[in-house]
Amino acid sequence: MNDSLKRGILIGAVVLLVVACGYYAWSSMGRDEIVQAANTRVLMCSETGELFEVQLTPDFGAFPHQNPKTGTMTLYPTEICYWNQCGDRGGTRVILNHWLGEEGPTHCPVCGHVVRRHNPAPPDWQGPP
């Protein structure tokens, strides 16, 4: 092998290494924030209506969860109502009757619209103001 071929192979290997490192850095940028957002849930206290951001962990368990302020087992997942005036204010969080062990549909306490699991926004809703 002559020197120019060796130099060409070395330059090619260095370029490949730089490209691979660049791709790795680019693909991992923001990953921590994405994972953090995916593992965060907003729970509501069924007694006070206060919202709590909670991190999901392997031992997260079933609902209800313990309210860190009161020590009571009153934290439940929420759905967001975007209908009527709720959409104008960015949505209203609602605990479904299902979680509370109550029968019948859940109605938004602000606008009265029926709220369900994976609650859809109105077709014309444009997002939070």
Outline of the structure:
The chain is of the alpha+beta class and 129 residues long.
What does this structure look like?
Helix content is 33%, strand content 22%. With 129 residues, the protein is α+β, with helices and mostly antiparallel strands. The longest helix is centred in the first third of the chain and has 26 residues, at 3-28. The protein starts with a helix and ends in a 14-residue tail after the last strand.
**Could you state the oligomeric state of the chains shown?**
single chain
Largest sheet: 4 strands, antiparallel
Q: Count the helices. How many?
A: 4
| Rg calc | 25 Å
Number of domains: 2
The chain-level structural class is: alpha+beta
Number of strands: 8
Estimate the mean pLDDT confidence: 85
Low-pLDDT residue spans: none
Distance between the amino and carboxyl termini: 67 Å
Helical percent range?
A: 25-40%
Q: Please state how the strands of the largest beta sheet are arranged side by side.
A: 2-1-4-3
Order of secondary-structure elements? HHEEEEEHEHEE
The share of residues in extended strands comes to 15-25%
Question: What are the salient characteristics of this protein?
Answer:
4 helices, alpha+beta, two-stranded antiparallel ribbon, 2 domains, 8 strands, 129 residues, single chain, four-stranded antiparallel sheet
